[in-house]
Amino acid sequence: MDPDAVAKAFVEHYYSRFDANRSNLGNLYQDSSMLTFEGQKVAGAQNIVAKLTSLPFQQCQHAVTTVDCQPSGAAGGVLVFVSGNLQLAGEQHALKFSQCCAQANE
Length: 106
Description:
By secondary structure, the chain is α+β, with helices and mostly antiparallel strands.
C-alpha cells in the first residue's frame, strides 16, 4: 500500500469530519490512542473526542497546505505530519496548525 495515498485519504477524511462535526471522530481512534494537545495528554477514543468537542469554538475550516508521511513499523503503519491554516467562524485571520498522526495498519 502506498503511504502517500493512505496519508492523503486519511487527512481528507479526518479534517472533513473534524470541520463538520468533531463528535464523529471517535471511530478514527482506538482505546489505546493518545492525543497531546498543548501539553495535555488525553488517552482513549472517548476522552479524545471529549477534548476535541470541548475546544472553545463551534465551527472551523481546515485548509491543509502540507501532508508529509513515511512508513512506520513492520506492520505497515504510516506516520503523517500535517500543517495548514485553521479558520474559525467569526475570526478575520486564520490560525496556523500542525498535527502528527501515527496510523496503525489494522
